Amino acid sequence: MADRRLLALAAAALLSALAFLLIGLKGNIAFVLELRLLKLAALMQVGVAIAISTVIFQTVTGNRILTPSVMGLDALYLFGQMLMVFLLGGVGYVSLDPQVKFAVEVMVLMVLASGLLLPMLKRRLDMGLMLLAGVVFGVLFRSLYSLLARLIDPNDFAVAQTASFANFNAVRTDLLAFAAVVTVLAAVLAWRARHVLDVVSLGPEAATGLGVNWAASVTGLLLLVSALVAVSTALVGPVAFFGLLVAALAERLVVTRRHARLLPAAALTGITVLVGGQTLFQHGFGSATALGVVIEFFGGLVFLLLLVLGSRS
Amino acid sequence: MIRIENVSFRHRTVPILSDITLTIDKGGVVALVGPNGAGKSTLLSLVARLQPLQMGNIQIDGLPVDATPGRQLARVVAILRQDTTVASRLTVRELVSFGRFPHGRGRLSAADHAIVDAALARFDLADLAGRFIETLSGGQRQRALVAMAFAQGTDYLLLDEPLNNLDMYYARELMRALRAAADENGKTVVIVLHDINQASAHADRIVAMKGGRILADGAPCDILTPDMLEVVFGLRAPVETIGGKPFVLHQL
């Protein structure tokens, strides 16, 4: 059953990609197609990156309502970006090669995230404490971000600000090739770790008993998550609840927590929701910028729903 | 053979285990008994390298647990802890098949499937194989976890209070299944038990612990005497012998 549903999901993802490319195609077709292809590639990457990073993060923390962004990982990324603007100045920041910049940002995020989260993940903490810590982290980095924003001059601020809002309409196509390498690499690594992830979901003790080196595996997985968060945040900006929405949807669609099914299902759901939603908004409702808001709205509802359901059981 | 030598363990400044030395021969069922806080679970988790060894050393079949790669050790010893949480949306069969992870890193061969089927059958789970774990009762889930540890196919099986949540019928069935695994397959089962009469009925050897030390060690008929019970558990209770085995009437 899971396999058939996975196929259906793949078909849905393909369909939304085709719709995105072909609906309302007119004028200079080659030019429009190229533009749309680039955007499609970016959206697909974002969908895959957020979906996979959320599933892995939930498995490692043993917690269905945590996502990297709930734990403040994307706020950390934005803070890093602002710090670079602060240190280099707006002109210096802009004149950096975007790919070098991105590579540095990814690595900084990986180091900071593992430095912060690893002590917490060595042992699984209970959900309340993790959530609280995440909220505190998030607020801390957002405050540091706005502190720096107040310190820099307005022109520099404009440079930093364009990076700090989710915008599915103006994706950063200049980073596409580099980000694609990271995403594909991370996706391959996640796929290869699918059985380890199954065992990790049982918790540190059972996983150790089954021969998994908990500390090493969790470190590796967390680095993977940080890289994926950096990709999606760099391409479209921070999105809080999209990952939660996609992971919860995918798990209910394929009705299993086995990662061999769940990972592809989540990735395909991510693509379908993002690309399909974007198509719908571009051609159906006219104002495409609203997609981010709508996704966050439904994602937030899912978050609340899971919170309420979770507190009952 | 499990060889535990001069093992001490403290949690911050609180001593949990003090200078434990114990040798468990291959084959048979060994029950660890003792009051709450005796250090039974800690000892078991140290043997299964779930916690780092602070003092002393532990070897299983000559493999030092603190220096042997986890994968290799996972083919020798399996452990079931008291409070294993299982993610939802996993079937019983999937959970039990996780026990084969140390052998194929998640890829299941035909032989692995046969072993999983055998474990399901042995713990009376065949009918429940397709059910999701979260739809099971506490006792059924407990049996599924024991079956997972059993499916790991190790010579040594460490079980921390596996009778929790089990009714009389399944408690006895589980103990019989473990007894059979020891007698027929030559497994070594080390089991923490609270029901001392289960230990008497099914174990070859009882190790009684209190306050992080071993107080008594021997066959059930040597350990389960009114005097020893008073020393270990601090309660006086009559002991009756039924069918050659001592039973403690601690309810009286």
Automatic annotation (TrEMBL), chain A:
Keywords: Cell membrane, Membrane, Transmembrane, Transmembrane helix, Transport. InterPro entries: ABC_BtuC-like (IPR037294), ABC_transptr_permease_BtuC (IPR000522). The chain crosses the membrane at residues 40-63, 75-96, 102-121, 128-148, 175-194, 206-229, 235-255, 262-281, 287-309. It is found in: Cell membrane. One of its GO terms (molecular function) is transmembrane transporter activity. The keyword Mitochondrion does not apply. It is a multi-pass membrane protein. One of its GO terms (cellular component) is plasma membrane. GO terms for biological process: siderophore-iron import into cell. Belongs to the binding-protein-dependent transport system permease family. FecCD subfamily. This is Iron complex transport system permease protein. It comes from Shinella fusca.
UniProtKB/TrEMBL annotation, chain B:
The keyword Iron applies. GO terms for biological process: iron ion transport. One of its GO terms (molecular function) is ATP binding. It is a peripheral membrane protein. Its main location: membrane. Residues 2-236 form the ABC transporter domain. Keywords: ATP-binding, Cell membrane, Ion transport, Iron, Iron transport, Membrane, Nucleotide-binding, Transport. Pfam families: ABC_tran (PF00005). Signal peptide: none annotated. Belongs to the ABC transporter superfamily. This is Iron complex transport system ATP-binding protein. It comes from Shinella fusca.
